[in-house]
Amino acid sequence: MKIAILSKKGGVGKTPFAFSLAKDLNLYLQSNDNSCIEKIYPNKAKISKIVDNIDNCVYDFGGFSASGVLDIVKNCKFCLIPILPNSNSLIKTFETINELKNINNNIILLATNYRNDKEQEYLVENINKFLSKYQVFYFKSSMIFSNAMMYGRSFTELYNENPLSKNAYKQFFNEYNELLNKIKS
């Protein structure tokens, strides 16, 4: 299985999602973008300007300029595109989809980092208006993103740490678990 997480917009949550999915699905992780993944996912993560086209891998692509990216994307089971609740992120999502749709249209949107009902409504309204053909998972802003990167634990591991974490991350994890089930199906 190959999964690509990509966007032309930075700071949307590509790396925390890529890391967590790779760890929870016991897959390799490769990125063309500098990050902490080799440190927090030793022996299974690799950063390289030219990524290797291998099976059982999650790809964290911070843009499409690296050699071989589109060839890898073509063979991915899913292409996940995180999107934030702002117009610049919407524009970059349109650009990303336009570049992908003729290569691999198995696109799933990850609506991330909305902080309140107004921001969620903005995402829902714009996704329904412009991107309604794609499945969407909604992830409210959560410390789980930074905690995954800081402690090298996947979203599932963080959720399962103790009763307090299960309570704090419940809404986020329920949606993430649905995403995992979709990917495994």
Short description:
The protein has helices at residues 14-24, 37-40, 69-74, 87-100, 117-130, 144-151, 155-159, 163-168, 170-184; strands spanning 2-6, 28-31, 45-47, 57-61, 78-83, 107-114, 135-140. It is an alpha/beta fold and 185 residues long. It has a seven-stranded parallel β-sheet with strand order 3-2-4-1-5-6-7, sandwiched between helices.
Give an overview of the whole structure:
The mean pLDDT is 94. This protein has 185 residues and is of the alpha/beta class. The protein contains 9 helices and 7 strands. The radius of gyration is 15 Å and the shape is globular. A 7-stranded parallel sheet has the order 3-2-4-1-5-6-7, sandwiched between helices. α1 packs across α6 (144-151). The chain has helices at residues 14-24, 37-40, 69-74, 87-100, 117-130, 144-151, 155-159, 163-168, 170-184, and strands at 2-6, 28-31, 45-47, 57-61, 78-83, 107-114, 135-140.
Order of H and E elements: EHEHEEHEHEHEHHHH
User: What would you call the structural class?
Assistant: alpha/beta
Question: Strands of the largest sheet, in order across it?
Answer: 3-2-4-1-5-6-7
Task: Detail the poorly predicted runs.
Answer: none
Q: Based on DSSP secondary structure assignment, what is the total number of beta strands?
A: 7
Whole-number mean pLDDT:
94
Distance between the termini: 11 Å
Range of helix content:
40-55%
The fraction of residues assigned to DSSP E strands is: 15-25%
Number of helices: 9
User: What's the alpha carbon Rg, rounded to whole Å?
Assistant: 15 Å
The profile of the biggest β sheet is: 7 strands, parallel
Quaternary organization? single chain
Tertiary shape = globular
